[in-house]
Amino acid sequence: MSDAPTVQTAASSAAEARAADAAHTGPMLAADGTPLKKSLNRALRLQKVRALALIGPLLIFVLVTFIAPIADMLFRSVENEIVSNTLPRTTDMLAEWDAKGTEFPQEPIFEALYDDMFFAKEAKLHTRLGSRLNYELTGVSSLFRKTGRKVDDMGEVYQDQFEDLDDFWKTGENWNSLMASDGWLVAMDGWKKSDGKQPPFELREGIAEMLPATTETYVRFADFIQNQDEDNLYKKDPWAIVYSSLHADLTGQNSVASYTGPAAAELKAAAAAAPAFETVNFSEAFRDIDKDWHALDVWQTIKVYSPKYTSGYFLNAVDMQKSVDGPELRPENERIYGILFWRTIVMSVVITGSCILLGYPVAWILANLPVRQANLLLILVLLPFWTSLLVRTSAWKVMLQQEGVINDTLVWLGLVATDDRLALINNQTGTIIAMTHILLPFMILPLYSVMQTIQPSYLRAAKSLGATNWTAFWRVYFPQSIPGIGAGSILVFILAIGYYITPAIVGGTSGTFISNRIAYHISSSLNWGLGAALGAILLAAVLLLYYAYDKIVGIDNVKLG
């Protein structure tokens, strides 16, 4: 009976708790009165921000030094804006030209080429464009340089006639009185460089409708003088191309008869005389500069590479080329990159194999010696890292020569005749020997770290069960060392496939890698697009081999100890 009040009290408390829960229908609150869910989300968000702040510097470093260069390389391998940006009018008009036909472009396209080449020459872009197209067609670079030196002569035909007609057309001040607004003329009156940036050029109202071609050319001229040359536009005499545009306007359908503004008399006199001027046949003028301007392959190359993005670099990287008929193989005597890619892969595999054969016994000895002796030998393994790569490679160049240390030793031992010394330099043999020596520590260290974890008792147990030394090694020890072989092979192969200093010094023509051509295009020929395409293909090949290795061996089995 004494337990009855206790049971009744407990039942009453439970009922009150249920009633309180039923009455409280809102969200669960934290100690500060905010909803518990919101408070937890805020706490998690703060934790994520702190974690991001900790890894932020490293993330930025990786993005700037690794991801961004790769992205830039991939973009350069397809970027081709220089053609369309330098020859905008020409490439637009070439879109209608039949590149597969036998007729070269007609006069309007040559006139557009004159306009584009004139401004490209002033901006010094014509040589860059020539270099770009020279990658695809030999001789185009000299063609553009030669044309840039003589393109002024075409416009000067009209300039001389306008200036002979009236001295008004000789000076920049007179041209500005015709083309510029009154407000700009007032602002430029007395302007000096010490006053700061000159006022931007402003057109006179109505001049663009009356002289459209002249206006467009003069505005481009004014923009170049003010913003690139940073010269005084008010006193600058116009370029020859401005006179060509003025002649086109005055002999076209545009009328100046109703014009009453500044220089009206001079403009009307010029309009009356312009139809009788000597004219320029731009097609013939370009042929007079160089007969190659009437060659189909030049124009076909310009049209094929006029889009802003191109697959041409990647096609060149696999011994193909773009043509008016689409991708096609290069002539057999120009196919070098396929050979280089294959040589790079095969020789990297050979170097990796030789590092395994030489490094495995060394790593086994290091792992089974007493610690004191193992540490001493490990210092000898690491010693090459303290010497410059260039010095080590140069040393091999001296040793591998026909009059070098190795051949002299073989002759002294009687293994090789004096007049029959081995050719160990400037070939694939020299590359394999030198790179095996340089990359050997990268194989030994992973093997050694893995072998240290293999218990000697396993071998003793196998032998106690009747296994021979070879069986115990092959069935017990070797399988446990495979993760070290995998790690060392990945390190050595990836390093070997990207080496270019050692093959360049000891490899000669038959022992160089694809990386040597990439370095050549980046630093010497400046064909960055092709170099980027070769690098992208090499990167894709490495990733593909890495994927295959993961499927066959399993990247999870790779251990560094």
Please tell me about this protein's structure.
This protein is mainly α. Among the domains are: 165-239 and 251-276, no CATH class; 337-557, MetI-like fold (Orthogonal Bundle). Helix content is 66%, strand content 1%. The chain contains 27 helices and two strands. It has a two-stranded antiparallel sheet with strand order 1-2. Helix 12 packs antiparallel against helix 13. The longest helix is centred in the first third of the chain and has 41 residues, at 36-76. The two termini are 73 Å apart. The relative contact order is 0.08.
In short:
The chain has helices at 4-23, 36-76, 81-86, 88-94, 107-122, 126-134, 140-150, 152-165, 172-179, 182-188, 207-210, 212-227, 240-250, 264-273, 282-289, 296-304, 312-317, 337-368, 371-382, 389-400, 405-413, 428-451, 456-464, 469-497, 501-506, 514-523, 528-552, and strands spanning 320-321, 328-329.
Topology:
Blueprint: H1 4-23, H2 36-76, H3 81-86, H4 88-94, H5 107-122, H6 126-134, H7 140-150, H8 152-165, H9 172-179, H10 182-188, H11 207-210, H12 212-227, H13 240-250, H14 264-273, H15 282-289, H16 296-304, H17 312-317, E1 320-321, E2 328-329, H18 337-368, H19 371-382, H20 389-400, H21 405-413, H22 428-451, H23 456-464, H24 469-497, H25 501-506, H26 514-523, H27 528-552
What distinguishing features does this structure have?
about 550 residues, MetI-like fold, 27 helices
Radius of gyration: 39 Å
Top-tier CATH class of one domain: Mainly Alpha
Report strand order across the widest sheet: 1-2
In the predicted model, the low-confidence regions spanning at least 5 consecutive residues are none
Helix content: 55-70%
Cα end-to-end separation: 73 Å
Helix-strand category: mainly alpha
Number of discrete helical segments: 27
Q: List the quaternary state of the chains.
A: single chain
Strand content: under 5%
Main sheet: strands, sense, barrel: 2 strands, antiparallel
- In the CATH hierarchy, the third-tier topology of one domain is known as MetI-like fold
**Residue-averaged pLDDT, rounded?**
87
